[in-house]
Structure to design on (336 residues):
């Protein structure tokens, strides 16, 4: 067997829009209460993009921070991959727009869409690229502006989501400038099930429900979700894929220093920790500040954990994600 180059996270960064929408603000928009949102979801506030603020603008700030953390320049990158379900536009893709905003060209730049699991899918993309081309320097983004697809009259969804982006720079293990972070990706597992994808969707404007000139935007433009069903599938699949990656790598939950899961609902996060037998202080939570930022929840949490000095030497990180599609996945990362 040839030796396969392992991938290492060298830098992390995140950015959220300036404007904050609190639960109290939402009480003015729909029939809801801070008490309902807090007890049912754990969310207190979320950041919402300003008019004209596109995903690439937010991703640009996250990318600059991740590059600085890795002690690298945009010119060092070989690949830019943006995971999102709310791109700036269908064409050009957001990665090409971001490349231009970073002031570089000639990179391999494309978007992927696995909804809230997008960043975890992107970890696997980066690993595969680096295994094939060990000199690659890959910028991966997880970001969404779900406020652009939110029906602000629908209380069952509008209280849940926020906007943001997170970024990571990855290189091969042997391509080390000795200055950045060292988060060696030990494994990734991804999965999906399209048969129940309708439980969480927005298809208006896509080729299955195209808009024509003068078309009036209808409800299919906005997120619709069967919350209770999504809730059950999220817990079941994230627990199973977390257990699978631990077993496959012969590590126990006691070995895990920190768990970062998709931040959609505090009850989902706490249930996952309990079912895996991982104590609360090892389960990362920040959704009270940002809400569900879709593909951005995991890289934002990673970057915050880095800022809080929780990705220390020898720590073992378990990542678990779940999102529209349905898609889900896990990753194991060892910090050196
Ligand atoms: N304020 C007040 N009442 C509300 C609100 C609100 N914002 N929203 C719903 N309610 C009401 C409902 O109408 C219902 O009333 P009824 O009993 O009179 O019919 C009651 O509250 C209970 O509603 P449920 O939907 O059963 O509430 P639940 O406890 O399931 O919480 C929630 C809803 C928060 C959406 C939860 O189901 C959830 O978090 N689901 C998972 C979401 C998720 O994980 N998404 C991940 C993927 S997201 C992505 O990929 C983009």
């Amino acid at each position: 067997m040839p030796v396969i180059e392992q991938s290492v996270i060298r830098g992390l960064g995140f950015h959220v829009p300036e404007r904050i929408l609190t639960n109290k603000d939402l009480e003015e928009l729909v029939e809801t209460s801070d008490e309902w949102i807090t007890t049912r979801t754990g969310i207190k506030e979320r950041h919402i993009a300003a008019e004209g603020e596109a995903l690439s603008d937010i991703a640009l700030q996250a990318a600059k921070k991740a590059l600085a953390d890795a002690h690298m320049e945009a010119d060092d990158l070989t690949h830019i991959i943006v995971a999102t379900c709310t791109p700036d536009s269908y064409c050009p893709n957001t990665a090409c727009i971001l490349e231009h905003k970073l002031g570089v060209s000639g990179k391999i730049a494309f978007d992927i869409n696995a909804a809230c699991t997008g960043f975890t899918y992107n970890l696997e993309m980066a690993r595969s690229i680096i295994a094939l081309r060990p000199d690659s320097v890959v910028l991966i983004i997880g970001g969404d502006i779900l406020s652009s697809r939110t029906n602000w009259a629908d209380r069952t969804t509008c209280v849940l989501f926020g906007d943001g982006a997170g970024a990571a720079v990855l290189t091969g293990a042997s391509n080390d400038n000795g200055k950045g972070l060292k988060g060696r990706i030990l494994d990734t597992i991804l999965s999906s099930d399209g048969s129940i994808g309708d439980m969480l969707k927005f298809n208006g404007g896509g080729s299955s429900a195209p808009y024509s000139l003068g078309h009036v935007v209808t409800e299919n433009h906005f997120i619709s979700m069967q919350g209770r069903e999504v809730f059950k599938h999220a817990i079941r699949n994230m627990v199973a894929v977390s257990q699978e990656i631990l077993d496959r790598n012969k590590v126990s939950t006691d070995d895990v220093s920190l768990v970062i899961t998709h931040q959609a609902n505090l009850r989902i996060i706490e249930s996952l920790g309990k079912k895996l037998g991982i104590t609360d202080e090892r389960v990362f939570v920040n959704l009270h500040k940002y809400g569900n930022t879709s593909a951005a929840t995991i890289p934002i949490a990673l970057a915050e954990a880095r800022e809080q000095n929780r990705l220390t030497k020898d720590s073992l990180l378990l990542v678990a994600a779940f999102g529209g599609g349905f898609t889900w996945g896990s990753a194991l990362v060892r910090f050196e």
About this structure: The chain has two domains: 7-172, 183-335. Residues 32, 36-37, 40-41, 115-116, 155-156, 159, 200, 227-228, 230-231, 234, 264-265, 268, 292, 294, 322-324 surround acetyl coenzyme *A (CB under 6 Å).
